[in-house]
Each structure stands twice: as structure tokens, then as C-alpha cells.
Amino acid sequence: MTEYLDKKNNFISIYFFIGSSMVLASFLEIFISNILSFYVSLPISLMVLIYWNMALPRSVGLLWALLAGFTLDIAQEIYLGSHVFLFLLVSFVTQRYFHRLRALYTIQQSIFVAFLVLLYQITLLIFFSELNINILYELFVVTIVSALVWPVIFGLLRFLRIKFTYGK
Fold first, then answer.
1. What is the DSSP track for 10-53?
2. Where are the domains of the chain?
3. What is the pTM of this model?
4. Which end of the chain is less crowded, N or C, counting CB atoms within 10 A of the terminal residue's CB?
């Protein structure tokens, strides 16, 4: 009987932790984009979503992508569903190949995440702005920064997931 309760508590704590990290990442991304005057922002919520899709693909449904996407759409005042569509697409790709992505070294994962961030940002820029040299420079910088930030996000979320959901 106690094993059932432990599994139920782990199940609830995993979903709570995924949700709270997604909400925190969305608010952090909104906060950073409001402080900095860059046109292209660092997609922290996208990287957290990629982590959860790699780490727990069965626990992370499309609901988290929908919630995070709608939050960013409303906060950035762009067409409703833009981030949602891109987050769902990234979630699908990440969940489809999560076995292969888990087996990659951290540097290889960083390159994969940087590639996804680049595609994500280019898609947003094509549909919602005109491209100029300054925006392309910011896009390049954000892509490099996201590749450098990925190991930190990956390590932090992995440590917290293991500590709070499985450890005592």
C-alpha cells in the first residue's frame, strides 16, 4: 500500500515540478525581454520545454507547450497561437527523437538546441518583423548564448528533478 502512495506522490510531484518550472521559465523570459532592449529574446521557456521533453517525454504532454506558448503570446502581444504552434512543433520533434537526444554529449545537445532556437527565432522574425543587419546580429548572439546556457539549464533542471522527485 505504501508503494502505491509513493508512486502517486512522485507522479503528483513530477507534474507540479514540470508546471512550476515552465511557469517560472516563462516569467523569467518575459522579465528578461522587458528589461533588455533587444528585439530577439533568449527563449528560456523553449529550452526548459526541450529539457522536459527529453527527460520525461511521457509526463510532458502537449498541454505544457500550449500553456507556455499562450503565456508568451499574451505577454509579447503577438498573434495568439504563434508560440503555441512553434512549441508544439519543437515538442513533437524532441519527443520523437528523445532516445537519440539523451545519448548525445552535452556539446552535441547544445548544438541541437541552438539549431532549434535559430529556427524558432527565424520563424518568428519572418512572420512578425522585417529583417535588417542589427536583428540578424542579435539572432546570431542569441543563438550562441542559448548554446552556452543550455548546459546550465540542463544541469540545474536535472539536479532539481532528481532531488525533488526521486530523492528524499
1. HHHHHHHHHHHHHHHHHHHHHHHHHHS--SS---HHHHHHHHHH
2. 2-166
3. 0.88
4. C
